[in-house]
Amino acid sequence: MDTEAGRPVIRVLLADDQSLVRAGFRALLDAQPDIVVAGEAADGREAVGAVRELRPDVVLMDIRMPVLDGLAATRRITDDEALSRVKVVMLTTFELDEYVFEAIRSGASGFLVKDTEPEELLRAVRAVVAGDALLSPGVTRRLIAEFAARSKEPAVADVLTRLTEREREVMALVGIGLSNEEIARRLVVSPLTAKTHVSRTMVKLGARDRAQLVVLAYESGLVRPGWLG
Predict the structure, then answer these.
(1) Minimal CA–CA distance to 191: which of 199, 180, 200?
(2) How far apart are the C-alpha atoms of 188 and 99, rounded to whole Å?
(3) Which residue ranges of the chain lie beneath pLDDT 50?
(4) Strand partners, 40
């Protein structure tokens, strides 16, 4: 992140083929003291090029764009080791977009519906940079459960043997959408301890971020659809 007047500033890239959508997001984000729009892109190919040039902290990426769609663009970004610090948040028009689960599997840090409340968008941008919260918890939980339910029956993966019993417990709680603070309360530990467990689990499993840890929790069979309540 850049700094301005001694404060960290989150740099955001807007990738959407609709100029009015970009203008609306820009007006909202640029009005915040800790966020600045670093650039814009009208299609996926432009987005990848802009990310390589500008190195933003966060990309708000529309899933459906011409030339190169948001899903393919996300893969190019997350597959590039030089861009490992860039977080991609997918934007979708509908809550049950068919590509959402695949987008997170491909490396996106989360997703938002375009008609989300302004406060939720701002909270999401800050959260994904902090790396300690899943985006739009309510929507995220419903969507991941929906797509996990449609996927094949998972088998308990060998990757879980890399984890301690406490780390598997923490991973399961992350999988049902709990924040570090909620995990801490559930396990009666400090938020810092909960965050440390989450971080160690991600390192052991090679998860890029918390969103991918959720996907792994479902794919490994550690969490099953219907556990969300």
Answers:
(1) 180
(2) 37
(3) 133, 227-229
(4) 14
Burial level of 87, CB count in 10 A (0-12/13-18/19+)?
A: buried
Per-residue model confidence (pLDDT) at position 13: 98
Q: Are 38 and 45 in contact (CB under 8 A)?
A: no
What string of DSSP letters covers 171-222? HHHHHTT--HHHHHHHHTS-HHHHHHHHHHHHHHHT-SSHHHHHHHHHHTTS
Q: Minimal CA–CA distance to 188: which of 169, 209, 201? A: 169
SS3 60: strand
196: left (phi over 0), alpha (psi -120 to 50) or beta: alpha
| Category of 108 on φ-ψ map: left (φ > 0), alpha (ψ -120 to 50) or beta | beta
- How far apart CA 40 and CA 102 sit, in angstroms, is 24
Distance, CA of 144 to CA of 110 (rounded, Å): 10
Tokens 């989300």, residue located = 116
pTM score, whole prediction: 0.72
pLDDT at 3: 64
